[in-house]
Amino acid sequence: MSTFSIKLYSYYRSSAAYRVRIGLNLKQIEHSIVPVNLLKKEHKNPDYLTKQPQGLVPCLEVDNGRFLAQSGAILSYLDKLYPSSTLLPPAPFQAAKIQSFVDIIACDIHPVCNLRILNYLTVDLKVDAQQKLLWYKHWIVEGFVALESMLAKTQYCFGEQITLADIYLIPQVYNALRFEVDMTLFPKIMQAYQNCNQLEAFIKAAPENQLDAI
Question: For residues 211 and 33, is the Cβ–Cβ distance under 8 A?
């Protein structure tokens, strides 16, 4: 392996970047954080677009000049590169069950609730702040109802070990709390959230603990 230090291009409130920060911390991978301020549109700079053509975060620089986009691909890469603490269990069905949980967040909840979608609603479609909040809460609650039904009363999402499910769930819950979603409806989700947030890997990855936190 190269001695080049892995770089994560990140925005402190990006839930996708938050996932990767958790993964890097859990696997104890040495890395540095390069803040990309989405509010200042630094993600649209030509230099950044050569690294991440969509102009999104996260982006992982794995050696000098090789870049990976999309949190799912990045976490899969890290899991293969550092297999000592895998994020999915070896049993195929259980791994697929966890992946289905992850996909509800990655494919159905997060895409319609992220910053660029919310900005499009308010700036381009002239949706007011209250309507935007109703949009956000609708999709969060609909998704969380399904997620809650998939969980048992265990320490983490799927048992007593951290898995990919926890890495995806905790940033999404963080956002839900920020937008004042009533989380009393989801006791098993909140149990996993509270337990994960007692671990150093999750604490260090939290938005408020980032270099670029406002």
Answer: yes
Give strand pairing partners of 69.
59
Cα gap 55→176, rounded to integer Å: 24
Cα Rg of the chain, angstroms: 17
Are residues 156 and 117 in contact, defined by beta-carbon separation less than 8 angstroms?
no
Say whether 198 sits in a helix, a strand or coil: coil
Domains of the chain by residue range:
7-85, 92-201
Residue among 46, 45, 47, 55 at smallest CA distance from 116: 55
CATH superfamily of 7-85: Glutaredoxin (3.40.30.10)
Q: Domain 92-201: give its CATH architecture.
A: Up-down Bundle (1.20)
Q: Is the pTM of this model over 0.70?
A: yes
**Start-end of H helices in the chain:** 15-26, 46-51, 71-81, 92-103, 115-119, 129-150, 164-178, 187-196, 200-205
CB-based burial, 120-145: b 16+ in 10 Å, e otherwise: ebeeeeebeeeebeebbbebbbebbe
pLDDT digits (tens, 9 = 90+) for 136-192: 999 999 999 999 999 999 999 999 999 999 999 999 999 999 999 999 999 999 999
